[in-house]
Amino acid sequence: MNELIYPTLDLFIYDRRDGLGENDTEIVKNQKYFLRRLPERDHKLLKQQDSEKSEYVELLGNRGRETFDSSTTHYSLKGWVYPVGLGDSYGLLIDCSVEHSLVNVEKAKNEAFPVSCFTDLKAEIEERLANTPSTIGQVWMLSGQLSNFNPDNAEIIVKECSQVSALNLNWDLDYRGKTPFLTGILFEFWRYYLHIPSELPESLNIHDIQDNHYVIVAIYPDTSTAQKASEFNFDWLRLFAYRSKILYSYGQSQYLRKKLHDNFINIEKYQNNFNQARSGKLKLQELRQTLVDAQDTLWNYSLDLNYLLAQKRTIEVNLLNYERRLERINQKLTNFKESSNLKCLNDFIEDVNHRYLEQIKNDYESLNIGLELLNNLINSIRGLTEIESSERDRNFQSTIAIVGVGLAASSLVASITGQFPGAADAKQAAKYPVGSLISHMRVPEPWLPPAVSVTISLGVGILAALVTWLGIRAFECFRGSSVKRDKMKA
Questions:
Q1: I need a surface site. Which of 97, 279, 284, 288 has the fewest CB within 10 A?
Q2: Is 283 left (phi over 0), alpha (psi -120 to 50) or beta?
Q3: What is the CA 126 to chain-centroid distance, rounded?
Q4: Are 375 and 291 in contact (CB under 8 A)?
């Protein structure tokens, strides 16, 4: 069985610090979450250092790191934690290695261990995480020295590592490739899936929608190479931060895409409601409710669409930083008089450019149509409801005018008829045509004068109202013809 000398497990883990749109309360909450992974004695110092919002801040000041010692049933372990502020995020590097087995203390520097020891190392690191999974992403790095090093033996030992259940690796599905590094070899494992639920949660937890498991296994031929490799730890810390932010932003973009798609379905429903209203199958009050709903959707839709574009820009910025950091790593390798194209790490750049950025670009372009549809729909609904409202108002005003004229005419005639000669005399009133007609209807004589007055008043009022109605209709027809002529001239 192949065994590794000085097996080491590193975890690079990243959390939100002060992301876009987060207020002071949320920023403090992010800080408290991050602090849970560190000893309480370091909290005061970390808070002081955290007030400096620069691109790279060592949160333990000049001390840099916090060391620890531990032991398991079989091994004595040692390690350190290194917290940093990385602009709008936190980074934490936890390094843990097997110092010696409990029965071979004298062989501490040269003792070889089976790959199963990584189970103990991972358990130690996870205990220090204090049940606080990353809020952005994380990367595991396994490393060790192989006494009988050659490419074939290195691959054999990595395959054995992939069979350690605690490491959650699958050689057939997750293995991506290998690349020379110093005089050793880096093996890359990566599993990335998105599973957006049909019912979206109100708040986003990236682990609910994204399975991002990334592991680097580094095999070195000797102690000298391993020591040189350790000088790259802080480069890895930044490089993996950019990688994690890219995939975090892509996961967020697909969450936003689902929200926008759901709202696009609502837009189609609003359009159906509008078409029904135009055909007379929907009441004006229901159309107004559709207008309110469409305006709410417009606000949320435009906001999510802008956030989608922001995710694209975030990926572009972090990809640029990723490329620059990779160039620095290559330059450092050149200084060590070593050459490597770090192919597996460069392949990620191609993936981002041709897959993730292209996907977000296509999503934005296709979903942006919904914004135009919503604006046009809202304007159309407003126009229709305003026309309907103005038509009702105009009809109401016309009715008031007609009734008013009729009542005024009736009142005027009623006041005048009382002054006619013989208006109070039933016999005289019966001589008038109206009085004669009413008298034949067997109206009692005492009631005949007021009945004549009322009848004349009502008749004149109705006639005046009819004339007013005809006048309004004629005016509306004339106005409609004028508007039509003006449109034809235009």
A1: 279
A2: beta
A3: 30
A4: no
Provide φ and ψ at 336, rounded to 5°. Answer: -85, 5
Distance CA 185, CA 488 (A): 80
Return the bridge partners of 139, or none.
Answer: 12
Strand-pair partners of 141: 10, 216
Regarding pTM above 0.90, the answer is: no
Instruction: Count other C-beta atoms under 10 Å from residue 350's C-beta.
Output: 9
CA pair distance 117, 97, nearest whole angstrom: 9
The two beta strands, 89-101 and 75-86, are antiparallel
- Enumerate the domain spans of the chain: 4-230, 253-389, 418-489
CA 262/CA 257 separation, integer angstroms: 9
Closest Cα to residue 55, out of 299, 276, 318, 345? 318
How far is Cα of residue 45 from the mean position of the Cα atoms in its chain?
35
Helices 284-335 and 233-278 pack at an angle, to 10 degrees, of: 160
Question: What gap in Å lies between CA 364 and CA 101, rounded to an integer?
Answer: 56
Q: What is the pLDDT of residues 382-418, one digit of tens each?
A: 776 665 555 555 555 556 655 665 566 556 555 665 5
CA distances from 467 to 363, 378, 400, 461 (A): 63, 41, 14, 10
Residue appearing with tokens 């498991």: 213
